[in-house]
Write a structure and sequence with these properties.
mainly beta, Pectate Lyase C-like, 20-stranded parallel beta sheet, 37 strands, 33% strand
Length: 468
Protein backbone atom coordinates (compact mmCIF):
# COMPACT_ATOMS: atom_id res chain seq x y z
CA UNK A 1 0.00 0.00 0.00
CA UNK A 2 1.21 3.51 -0.78
CA UNK A 3 2.06 5.51 2.32
CA UNK A 4 0.24 8.83 2.27
CA UNK A 5 2.02 12.05 3.09
CA UNK A 6 0.53 14.29 5.76
CA UNK A 7 1.89 17.53 7.09
CA UNK A 8 2.79 17.42 10.74
CA UNK A 9 0.48 19.60 12.79
CA UNK A 10 1.77 21.29 15.96
CA UNK A 11 -0.25 21.34 19.20
CA UNK A 12 -0.56 25.10 19.73
CA UNK A 13 -2.57 24.74 22.96
CA UNK A 14 0.52 24.13 25.15
CA UNK A 15 2.29 27.13 26.74
CA UNK A 16 5.26 28.23 24.67
CA UNK A 17 7.64 31.13 24.24
CA UNK A 18 6.77 33.93 21.80
CA UNK A 19 9.39 32.79 19.29
CA UNK A 20 7.93 29.29 19.20
CA UNK A 21 4.41 30.69 18.87
CA UNK A 22 5.49 32.65 15.80
CA UNK A 23 6.90 29.47 14.28
CA UNK A 24 3.66 27.60 15.04
CA UNK A 25 1.48 30.30 13.48
CA UNK A 26 3.61 30.34 10.36
CA UNK A 27 3.46 26.55 10.12
CA UNK A 28 -0.32 26.54 10.45
CA UNK A 29 -0.66 29.26 7.81
CA UNK A 30 1.40 27.13 5.46
CA UNK A 31 -0.88 24.12 5.76
CA UNK A 32 -3.03 25.21 2.80
CA UNK A 33 -0.79 26.44 -0.01
CA UNK A 34 -2.22 27.85 -3.23
CA UNK A 35 -0.71 26.54 -6.47
CA UNK A 36 -1.46 27.46 -10.07
CA UNK A 37 -1.90 25.80 -13.46
CA UNK A 38 -2.18 28.19 -16.41
CA UNK A 39 -1.25 27.37 -20.00
CA UNK A 40 -0.59 31.06 -20.73
CA UNK A 41 1.89 31.62 -17.88
CA UNK A 42 5.34 32.91 -18.88
CA UNK A 43 7.27 32.72 -15.59
CA UNK A 44 9.39 30.02 -13.99
CA UNK A 45 6.68 27.32 -14.26
CA UNK A 46 6.98 26.19 -10.63
CA UNK A 47 3.31 26.65 -9.74
CA UNK A 48 3.89 29.22 -7.00
CA UNK A 49 1.89 32.08 -8.57
CA UNK A 50 -0.27 32.89 -11.58
CA UNK A 51 2.77 34.30 -13.41
CA UNK A 52 4.91 31.31 -12.45
CA UNK A 53 2.14 28.73 -12.96
CA UNK A 54 2.71 25.29 -14.35
CA UNK A 55 1.74 25.33 -18.00
CA UNK A 56 1.31 21.57 -18.42
CA UNK A 57 -0.37 19.37 -15.78
CA UNK A 58 2.23 16.63 -16.34
CA UNK A 59 4.81 19.00 -14.81
CA UNK A 60 2.93 19.40 -11.51
CA UNK A 61 5.14 18.39 -8.59
CA UNK A 62 5.27 19.05 -4.87
CA UNK A 63 1.55 19.25 -4.10
CA UNK A 64 0.86 18.32 -0.50
CA UNK A 65 -2.02 17.47 1.82
CA UNK A 66 -4.32 20.51 2.10
CA UNK A 67 -3.13 22.42 -0.97
CA UNK A 68 -5.40 24.33 -3.35
CA UNK A 69 -4.65 24.13 -7.07
CA UNK A 70 -6.17 26.93 -9.17
CA UNK A 71 -6.71 25.97 -12.80
CA UNK A 72 -7.10 28.51 -15.60
CA UNK A 73 -8.76 28.06 -19.02
CA UNK A 74 -6.99 26.57 -22.00
CA UNK A 75 -6.56 23.31 -23.88
CA UNK A 76 -3.92 21.28 -22.08
CA UNK A 77 -2.03 18.57 -23.96
CA UNK A 78 -1.17 16.66 -20.79
CA UNK A 79 -3.28 14.58 -18.43
CA UNK A 80 -4.43 15.86 -15.06
CA UNK A 81 -3.34 13.01 -12.80
CA UNK A 82 -3.02 13.30 -9.03
CA UNK A 83 -1.68 10.38 -7.00
CA UNK A 84 -1.35 9.89 -3.23
CA UNK A 85 -2.31 13.40 -2.09
CA UNK A 86 -5.30 13.63 0.31
CA UNK A 87 -7.32 16.72 1.26
CA UNK A 88 -6.58 18.44 -2.04
CA UNK A 89 -8.78 21.03 -3.75
CA UNK A 90 -8.56 21.48 -7.53
CA UNK A 91 -10.73 24.39 -8.66
CA UNK A 92 -11.31 26.33 -11.84
CA UNK A 93 -10.56 30.03 -11.57
CA UNK A 94 -13.86 31.58 -10.48
CA UNK A 95 -13.55 34.43 -12.96
CA UNK A 96 -13.35 32.06 -15.91
CA UNK A 97 -15.86 31.97 -18.74
CA UNK A 98 -13.96 29.46 -20.90
CA UNK A 99 -13.09 25.85 -20.01
CA UNK A 100 -9.91 24.11 -19.00
CA UNK A 101 -9.73 21.12 -21.37
CA UNK A 102 -7.85 17.89 -20.60
CA UNK A 103 -7.48 14.59 -22.47
CA UNK A 104 -8.35 12.69 -19.27
CA UNK A 105 -8.21 12.90 -15.47
CA UNK A 106 -7.18 10.40 -12.81
CA UNK A 107 -7.24 10.69 -9.02
CA UNK A 108 -5.88 7.84 -6.89
CA UNK A 109 -5.39 7.72 -3.13
CA UNK A 110 -6.91 11.20 -2.77
CA UNK A 111 -9.15 11.00 0.31
CA UNK A 112 -11.16 14.08 1.33
CA UNK A 113 -10.47 15.87 -1.96
CA UNK A 114 -12.58 18.21 -4.09
CA UNK A 115 -12.40 18.55 -7.88
CA UNK A 116 -14.55 21.56 -8.77
CA UNK A 117 -14.93 22.88 -12.31
CA UNK A 118 -18.10 24.84 -11.61
CA UNK A 119 -18.48 28.59 -12.12
CA UNK A 120 -22.09 29.46 -11.38
CA UNK A 121 -23.90 26.74 -13.32
CA UNK A 122 -21.19 26.36 -15.98
CA UNK A 123 -19.11 23.16 -16.05
CA UNK A 124 -15.63 24.37 -16.99
CA UNK A 125 -13.50 21.27 -16.52
CA UNK A 126 -13.79 19.56 -19.91
CA UNK A 127 -12.49 16.10 -20.73
CA UNK A 128 -12.39 14.90 -24.33
CA UNK A 129 -10.43 11.62 -24.35
CA UNK A 130 -9.61 8.70 -22.07
CA UNK A 131 -6.81 7.03 -20.12
CA UNK A 132 -4.49 5.04 -22.44
CA UNK A 133 -4.39 1.89 -20.24
CA UNK A 134 -7.10 2.22 -17.58
CA UNK A 135 -9.43 3.71 -20.19
CA UNK A 136 -12.39 5.96 -19.35
CA UNK A 137 -12.32 9.75 -19.17
CA UNK A 138 -12.24 10.39 -15.42
CA UNK A 139 -10.91 7.68 -13.06
CA UNK A 140 -11.28 7.71 -9.27
CA UNK A 141 -9.42 4.96 -7.36
CA UNK A 142 -8.53 4.20 -3.73
CA UNK A 143 -10.19 7.43 -2.57
CA UNK A 144 -12.88 8.13 0.00
CA UNK A 145 -15.01 11.10 0.98
CA UNK A 146 -14.34 12.98 -2.26
CA UNK A 147 -16.49 15.31 -4.35
CA UNK A 148 -16.31 15.53 -8.15
CA UNK A 149 -18.18 18.57 -9.46
CA UNK A 150 -18.49 20.61 -12.64
CA UNK A 151 -16.81 18.16 -15.04
CA UNK A 152 -18.11 17.92 -18.63
CA UNK A 153 -17.07 14.90 -20.72
CA UNK A 154 -17.69 14.73 -24.47
CA UNK A 155 -15.91 11.99 -26.44
CA UNK A 156 -17.57 12.76 -29.78
CA UNK A 157 -14.18 12.84 -31.53
CA UNK A 158 -13.12 9.45 -30.13
CA UNK A 159 -15.97 7.04 -29.44
CA UNK A 160 -16.35 5.62 -32.96
CA UNK A 161 -12.80 4.18 -32.79
CA UNK A 162 -13.22 2.50 -29.39
CA UNK A 163 -12.23 -1.15 -29.24
CA UNK A 164 -13.77 -1.69 -25.79
CA UNK A 165 -16.19 0.17 -23.56
CA UNK A 166 -15.08 3.62 -22.46
CA UNK A 167 -17.02 5.02 -19.51
CA UNK A 168 -17.32 8.71 -18.75
CA UNK A 169 -16.64 8.74 -15.00
CA UNK A 170 -15.49 5.55 -13.32
CA UNK A 171 -15.34 5.14 -9.53
CA UNK A 172 -13.75 1.83 -8.52
CA UNK A 173 -10.84 -0.02 -6.92
CA UNK A 174 -11.87 0.32 -3.26
CA UNK A 175 -13.17 3.88 -3.31
CA UNK A 176 -15.31 4.80 -0.31
CA UNK A 177 -17.96 7.45 0.26
CA UNK A 178 -18.26 10.01 -2.56
CA UNK A 179 -20.39 12.62 -4.33
CA UNK A 180 -20.58 13.22 -8.08
CA UNK A 181 -22.64 16.31 -8.81
CA UNK A 182 -23.36 18.77 -11.63
CA UNK A 183 -21.33 16.78 -14.14
CA UNK A 184 -22.23 15.78 -17.70
CA UNK A 185 -21.23 12.93 -19.99
CA UNK A 186 -22.03 12.64 -23.70
CA UNK A 187 -20.97 10.57 -26.69
CA UNK A 188 -19.12 7.65 -25.17
CA UNK A 189 -19.27 3.94 -25.92
CA UNK A 190 -19.72 2.82 -22.30
CA UNK A 191 -21.61 4.01 -19.23
CA UNK A 192 -22.00 7.63 -18.29
CA UNK A 193 -21.01 6.90 -14.67
CA UNK A 194 -19.73 3.46 -13.68
CA UNK A 195 -19.38 2.49 -9.99
CA UNK A 196 -17.83 -0.83 -8.88
CA UNK A 197 -15.65 -2.32 -6.12
CA UNK A 198 -16.73 0.11 -3.40
CA UNK A 199 -15.33 0.01 0.15
CA UNK A 200 -18.16 0.25 2.73
CA UNK A 201 -15.99 0.69 5.82
CA UNK A 202 -17.85 3.19 8.05
CA UNK A 203 -21.05 3.15 5.99
CA UNK A 204 -23.47 1.76 8.59
CA UNK A 205 -25.20 5.10 9.27
CA UNK A 206 -25.59 5.97 5.57
CA UNK A 207 -28.80 4.25 4.48
CA UNK A 208 -28.88 5.67 0.94
CA UNK A 209 -26.12 8.25 0.57
CA UNK A 210 -22.74 6.51 0.79
CA UNK A 211 -22.84 6.88 -2.98
CA UNK A 212 -24.42 10.16 -4.12
CA UNK A 213 -24.96 11.05 -7.79
CA UNK A 214 -27.00 14.21 -8.32
CA UNK A 215 -27.75 16.96 -10.81
CA UNK A 216 -25.89 15.22 -13.64
CA UNK A 217 -26.81 15.11 -17.35
CA UNK A 218 -25.98 11.89 -19.21
CA UNK A 219 -26.79 11.68 -22.92
CA UNK A 220 -25.89 9.65 -26.01
CA UNK A 221 -24.30 6.72 -24.23
CA UNK A 222 -23.35 3.33 -25.63
CA UNK A 223 -24.49 1.63 -22.42
CA UNK A 224 -26.05 2.65 -19.08
CA UNK A 225 -26.49 6.17 -17.80
CA UNK A 226 -25.45 5.09 -14.29
CA UNK A 227 -24.14 1.58 -13.66
CA UNK A 228 -24.04 0.85 -9.95
CA UNK A 229 -22.79 -2.72 -10.08
CA UNK A 230 -23.90 -4.76 -7.05
CA UNK A 231 -23.55 -1.81 -4.73
CA UNK A 232 -25.60 -0.51 -1.81
CA UNK A 233 -26.44 2.72 -0.04
CA UNK A 234 -26.76 4.80 -3.20
CA UNK A 235 -28.85 7.79 -4.27
CA UNK A 236 -29.39 9.11 -7.78
CA UNK A 237 -31.21 12.44 -7.62
CA UNK A 238 -32.29 15.11 -10.10
CA UNK A 239 -30.32 13.69 -13.03
CA UNK A 240 -31.21 13.62 -16.74
CA UNK A 241 -30.52 10.42 -18.71
CA UNK A 242 -31.46 10.47 -22.41
CA UNK A 243 -30.26 8.20 -25.18
CA UNK A 244 -31.30 10.56 -28.03
CA UNK A 245 -31.03 7.80 -30.62
CA UNK A 246 -27.35 7.01 -29.90
CA UNK A 247 -26.01 3.67 -31.11
CA UNK A 248 -25.13 0.87 -28.72
CA UNK A 249 -21.65 -0.65 -28.53
CA UNK A 250 -20.22 -4.07 -27.71
CA UNK A 251 -23.63 -5.77 -27.35
CA UNK A 252 -24.62 -3.31 -24.64
CA UNK A 253 -28.10 -2.94 -23.18
CA UNK A 254 -28.45 0.77 -22.36
CA UNK A 255 -30.46 1.36 -19.19
CA UNK A 256 -31.00 4.64 -17.38
CA UNK A 257 -29.73 3.37 -14.05
CA UNK A 258 -28.88 -0.25 -13.28
CA UNK A 259 -28.34 -1.98 -9.96
CA UNK A 260 -26.93 -5.49 -10.38
CA UNK A 261 -27.67 -8.58 -8.22
CA UNK A 262 -27.74 -8.50 -5.03
CA UNK A 263 -27.56 -4.76 -4.54
CA UNK A 264 -29.88 -2.79 -2.33
CA UNK A 265 -30.58 0.39 -0.42
CA UNK A 266 -31.11 2.42 -3.60
CA UNK A 267 -33.02 5.69 -3.88
CA UNK A 268 -33.89 7.02 -7.37
CA UNK A 269 -35.48 10.40 -6.78
CA UNK A 270 -36.59 13.24 -9.05
CA UNK A 271 -34.83 12.24 -12.26
CA UNK A 272 -35.81 12.55 -15.93
CA UNK A 273 -35.31 9.39 -17.99
CA UNK A 274 -36.01 9.06 -21.70
CA UNK A 275 -35.59 6.26 -24.27
CA UNK A 276 -33.43 3.93 -22.24
CA UNK A 277 -34.17 0.22 -22.70
CA UNK A 278 -35.02 -0.22 -19.03
CA UNK A 279 -35.03 3.28 -17.64
CA UNK A 280 -34.78 2.15 -14.01
CA UNK A 281 -33.46 -1.40 -13.59
CA UNK A 282 -32.90 -3.09 -10.21
CA UNK A 283 -31.91 -6.70 -10.75
CA UNK A 284 -32.46 -9.20 -7.94
CA UNK A 285 -32.27 -6.48 -5.32
CA UNK A 286 -32.33 -7.60 -1.70
CA UNK A 287 -33.22 -4.55 0.40
CA UNK A 288 -34.74 -1.05 0.41
CA UNK A 289 -35.66 0.18 -3.06
CA UNK A 290 -37.21 3.66 -3.27
CA UNK A 291 -38.18 5.00 -6.73
CA UNK A 292 -39.95 8.33 -6.39
CA UNK A 293 -40.74 11.62 -8.16
CA UNK A 294 -39.32 10.58 -11.54
CA UNK A 295 -40.46 11.50 -15.05
CA UNK A 296 -39.96 8.42 -17.24
CA UNK A 297 -40.66 8.83 -20.95
CA UNK A 298 -40.36 6.85 -24.18
CA UNK A 299 -40.54 7.81 -27.85
CA UNK A 300 -40.00 4.38 -29.47
CA UNK A 301 -42.78 2.49 -31.23
CA UNK A 302 -40.79 -0.76 -31.38
CA UNK A 303 -38.69 -2.80 -29.00
CA UNK A 304 -39.23 -3.82 -25.38
CA UNK A 305 -38.76 -0.39 -23.81
CA UNK A 306 -40.10 -0.04 -20.28
CA UNK A 307 -40.13 2.48 -17.46
CA UNK A 308 -39.10 0.30 -14.52
CA UNK A 309 -37.79 -3.26 -14.38
CA UNK A 310 -37.35 -4.78 -10.92
CA UNK A 311 -36.70 -8.25 -9.62
CA UNK A 312 -36.61 -9.22 -5.95
CA UNK A 313 -34.29 -11.53 -4.04
CA UNK A 314 -36.14 -13.07 -1.11
CA UNK A 315 -36.03 -12.69 1.77
CA UNK A 316 -36.19 -9.00 0.82
CA UNK A 317 -35.67 -6.66 3.78
CA UNK A 318 -36.88 -3.11 4.29
CA UNK A 319 -39.03 -0.96 2.02
CA UNK A 320 -40.08 -1.17 -1.61
CA UNK A 321 -41.61 2.17 -2.66
CA UNK A 322 -42.57 2.99 -6.27
CA UNK A 323 -44.46 6.24 -5.95
CA UNK A 324 -45.24 9.67 -7.41
CA UNK A 325 -43.69 8.93 -10.79
CA UNK A 326 -45.14 9.64 -14.23
CA UNK A 327 -44.73 7.11 -17.06
CA UNK A 328 -45.36 8.45 -20.56
CA UNK A 329 -45.69 6.95 -24.06
CA UNK A 330 -44.74 3.33 -23.51
CA UNK A 331 -46.70 2.41 -26.65
CA UNK A 332 -45.05 -0.88 -27.51
CA UNK A 333 -44.51 -2.80 -24.29
CA UNK A 334 -45.50 -1.33 -20.95
CA UNK A 335 -44.57 0.85 -18.01
CA UNK A 336 -43.45 -1.61 -15.32
CA UNK A 337 -41.95 -5.09 -15.40
CA UNK A 338 -41.49 -6.10 -11.82
CA UNK A 339 -41.73 -8.68 -9.10
CA UNK A 340 -42.43 -7.38 -5.63
CA UNK A 341 -41.64 -8.44 -2.06
CA UNK A 342 -43.94 -11.13 -0.73
CA UNK A 343 -44.23 -9.12 2.49
CA UNK A 344 -46.47 -6.24 1.41
CA UNK A 345 -46.37 -4.33 4.72
CA UNK A 346 -43.71 -1.88 3.49
CA UNK A 347 -44.48 -2.15 -0.23
CA UNK A 348 -46.26 0.70 -2.02
CA UNK A 349 -47.05 1.28 -5.68
CA UNK A 350 -48.90 4.55 -5.21
CA UNK A 351 -49.48 8.05 -6.56
CA UNK A 352 -48.16 7.28 -10.05
CA UNK A 353 -49.52 8.54 -13.37
CA UNK A 354 -49.57 6.40 -16.53
CA UNK A 355 -50.13 8.31 -19.80
CA UNK A 356 -50.41 6.39 -23.07
CA UNK A 357 -48.93 3.19 -21.70
CA UNK A 358 -49.84 -0.06 -23.44
CA UNK A 359 -49.86 -1.79 -20.05
CA UNK A 360 -49.37 -0.69 -16.47
CA UNK A 361 -47.79 -3.92 -15.27
CA UNK A 362 -46.36 -6.05 -18.06
CA UNK A 363 -47.18 -9.21 -16.08
CA UNK A 364 -50.69 -9.84 -14.75
CA UNK A 365 -49.18 -11.61 -11.72
CA UNK A 366 -48.43 -8.34 -9.93
CA UNK A 367 -51.27 -6.12 -11.15
CA UNK A 368 -52.85 -6.05 -7.70
CA UNK A 369 -49.89 -4.07 -6.37
CA UNK A 370 -51.07 -0.98 -8.30
CA UNK A 371 -53.28 0.75 -5.76
CA UNK A 372 -56.31 3.01 -6.18
CA UNK A 373 -54.20 6.14 -5.65
CA UNK A 374 -52.81 5.93 -9.21
CA UNK A 375 -54.13 7.40 -12.47
CA UNK A 376 -53.98 6.09 -16.03
CA UNK A 377 -55.12 7.78 -19.22
CA UNK A 378 -55.00 7.32 -23.00
CA UNK A 379 -54.98 10.44 -25.14
CA UNK A 380 -57.55 10.28 -27.96
CA UNK A 381 -56.19 8.51 -31.04
CA UNK A 382 -53.16 6.96 -29.36
CA UNK A 383 -51.78 3.93 -31.21
CA UNK A 384 -50.31 0.71 -29.81
CA UNK A 385 -47.45 -1.32 -31.30
CA UNK A 386 -45.84 -4.71 -31.01
CA UNK A 387 -42.10 -4.99 -30.43
CA UNK A 388 -41.51 -5.04 -34.21
CA UNK A 389 -43.22 -1.68 -34.64
CA UNK A 390 -46.49 -2.95 -36.13
CA UNK A 391 -49.73 -1.26 -35.08
CA UNK A 392 -51.85 -3.61 -32.95
CA UNK A 393 -55.14 -3.43 -31.03
CA UNK A 394 -55.17 -2.51 -27.36
CA UNK A 395 -54.19 -5.42 -25.15
CA UNK A 396 -56.64 -6.94 -22.69
CA UNK A 397 -56.26 -6.68 -19.76
CA UNK A 398 -54.35 -3.41 -19.44
CA UNK A 399 -52.96 -4.36 -16.00
CA UNK A 400 -53.51 -1.08 -14.16
CA UNK A 401 -54.83 -2.78 -11.03
CA UNK A 402 -57.31 -0.57 -9.19
CA UNK A 403 -55.87 2.69 -10.62
CA UNK A 404 -58.43 5.24 -11.78
CA UNK A 405 -58.89 5.89 -15.51
CA UNK A 406 -58.96 9.71 -15.51
CA UNK A 407 -57.33 12.53 -17.47
CA UNK A 408 -54.64 13.76 -15.05
CA UNK A 409 -54.78 17.29 -16.54
CA UNK A 410 -51.09 18.10 -16.51
CA UNK A 411 -48.86 20.73 -18.05
CA UNK A 412 -46.18 19.94 -20.61
CA UNK A 413 -43.72 19.25 -17.78
CA UNK A 414 -46.17 16.99 -15.90
CA UNK A 415 -47.38 19.39 -13.22
CA UNK A 416 -51.01 19.32 -12.19
CA UNK A 417 -53.38 22.22 -12.94
CA UNK A 418 -56.53 23.46 -11.22
CA UNK A 419 -59.25 20.87 -11.51
CA UNK A 420 -56.88 17.94 -11.96
CA UNK A 421 -58.08 14.70 -10.34
CA UNK A 422 -54.48 14.19 -9.21
CA UNK A 423 -54.76 17.08 -6.74
CA UNK A 424 -55.24 16.06 -3.10
CA UNK A 425 -55.84 12.46 -4.20
CA UNK A 426 -52.54 10.87 -3.25
CA UNK A 427 -51.62 8.55 -0.44
CA UNK A 428 -49.57 10.14 2.35
CA UNK A 429 -46.17 8.45 2.16
CA UNK A 430 -44.34 10.76 4.54
CA UNK A 431 -43.08 7.73 6.44
CA UNK A 432 -40.71 7.26 3.48
CA UNK A 433 -40.23 10.70 1.85
CA UNK A 434 -41.61 14.22 2.20
CA UNK A 435 -40.56 16.26 -0.89
CA UNK A 436 -41.54 16.40 -4.57
CA UNK A 437 -39.41 16.54 -7.72
CA UNK A 438 -38.65 20.24 -7.15
CA UNK A 439 -37.60 19.62 -3.56
CA UNK A 440 -40.76 21.29 -2.22
CA UNK A 441 -42.33 19.78 0.88
CA UNK A 442 -45.44 17.75 0.17
CA UNK A 443 -48.53 18.68 2.17
CA UNK A 444 -51.43 16.51 3.26
CA UNK A 445 -53.48 15.53 1.34
CA UNK A 446 -50.74 14.66 -1.13
CA UNK A 447 -51.01 15.10 -4.90
CA UNK A 448 -50.55 12.24 -7.35
CA UNK A 449 -47.54 12.64 -9.68
CA UNK A 450 -44.00 13.97 -9.30
CA UNK A 451 -44.95 17.55 -8.36
CA UNK A 452 -47.13 19.05 -5.67
CA UNK A 453 -49.54 21.66 -7.01
CA UNK A 454 -48.09 25.19 -7.06
CA UNK A 455 -50.60 27.91 -8.02
CA UNK A 456 -47.87 30.38 -9.01
CA UNK A 457 -46.41 27.97 -11.56
CA UNK A 458 -49.87 27.05 -12.83
CA UNK A 459 -50.67 30.63 -13.73
CA UNK A 460 -47.53 30.77 -15.86
CA UNK A 461 -47.90 27.49 -17.73
CA UNK A 462 -51.39 26.03 -18.04
CA UNK A 463 -51.92 23.44 -20.75
CA UNK A 464 -54.13 20.39 -20.53
CA UNK A 465 -52.10 17.17 -20.52
CA UNK A 466 -48.84 17.80 -22.39
CA UNK A 467 -47.35 18.80 -25.72
CA UNK A 468 -46.23 15.87 -27.85
Amino acid sequence: MVRRRHRKRVDSMKPCPLSLLIVILCANAALAVERYLDITATGSANGTSRVNAWTNPTNITGLLDGDLLWVYPGTYAGKLEILNIPNLTIRIDQGSTNPAVFPFMQFSNCDDSLVDGLVGTNQLFWVTGDHPTLFHSVNWRLSSNFICRGVSIDRSAWYSADTNQQHGIRVWNECGKFVIEQCSVANTSGDGINVTQIDYTGSASFKYDWIMIRDCTLTRLGDDGVQLGSNRRATMRNCIVRQLGFETFFSAHPDGVQLNPDGGNLMVDGNFFEDNTQNIFTEWCSSNIVIINNVVRNTHTNGAYMGVACSIREPFTGDFILANNVFVDFFGYGAISASYPTNRTNTRVSNNVFIDCKRGMISTNYTSYIETNNLWYDTPGVLWYDTDGNIVPAVVPRNFGTAQNLNPMMTADYRTILGSPARNAGLDLSAWFVTDKSGDTRTVPWDIGPYEFNPVIRRINVKTLRIK
